[in-house]
């Protein structure tokens, strides 16, 4: 049982140390490229009476993109906070090796972080799928929010 627990802990540490930060940075880079592409192709017309559906789609897409960017940044921050907390506990274990509560606490926060990372993976998947779906379904409205009246662009 102890060997299995060490193996799981080792796998979790590898995920936290290598895989997740790399994937979150890839997501951040991907979102920045999408953001640049969207803002580069967006011809946002003035709000007028009627025919504003395409404009609202553009605004919703950019808002969703910003939300996902913010959440990805908070996930990276969470991983950093985990390492800081864990390092402080390991330091206390070194200083007070006879206090078993510190050792238990490290195990507890490792398990908590593992569960948290499973949730983050699910959230990232959902966010990728939502953005992908939103952009694909609305690409024409994103590119050209109005079929006519292009003189009103600014």
Automatic annotation (TrEMBL):
One MF annotation (Gene Ontology) recorded for this entry = endopeptidase activator activity
Q: Which GO terms describe its biological process?
A: regulation of G1/S transition of mitotic cell cycle; regulation of proteasomal protein catabolic process
Entry-linked Pfam families: PA28_C
For whether the record's keyword set contains DNA-binding, the answer is no
The record's keywords, sorted A to Z, are: Proteasome
Q: Where is the Proteasome activator PA28 C-terminal domain?
A: 27-151
Q: Which GO terms describe its cellular component?
A: cytoplasm; nucleoplasm; proteasome activator complex
Transferase as a keyword of this entry, yes or no, is: no
To which protein family does this belong? Answer: Belongs to the PA28 family.
What PANTHER family would the database entry show? Answer: PROTEASOME ACTIVATOR COMPLEX SUBUNIT 3, PROTEASOME REGULATOR PA28
> Which protein, by its recorded name, is this?
Proteasome activator PA28 C-terminal domain-containing protein
Gene name of the encoded protein: PSME3
């Amino acid at each position: 049982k102890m060997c299995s627990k060490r193996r799981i802990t080792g796998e979790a540490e590898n995920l936290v140390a290598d895989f997740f930060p790399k994937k979150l940075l890839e997501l951040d880079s991907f979102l920045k490229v999408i953001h640049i592409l969207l803002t580069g192709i967006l011809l946002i017309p003035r709000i007028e009476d009627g025919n504003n559906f395409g404009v609202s789609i553009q605004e919703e897409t950019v808002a969703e993109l910003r939300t996902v960017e913010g959440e990805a940044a908070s996930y990276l921050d969470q991983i950093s906070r985990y390492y800081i907390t864990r390092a402080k506990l390991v330091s206390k274990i070194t200083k007070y090796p006879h206090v078993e509560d510190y050792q238990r606490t490290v195990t507890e926060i490792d398990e908590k972080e593992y569960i948290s990372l499973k949730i983050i993976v699910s959230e990232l998947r959902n966010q990728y799928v939502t953005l992908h779906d939103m952009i694909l379904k609305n690409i024409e409205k994103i590119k050209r929010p109005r079929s006519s009246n292009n003189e009103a662009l600014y």
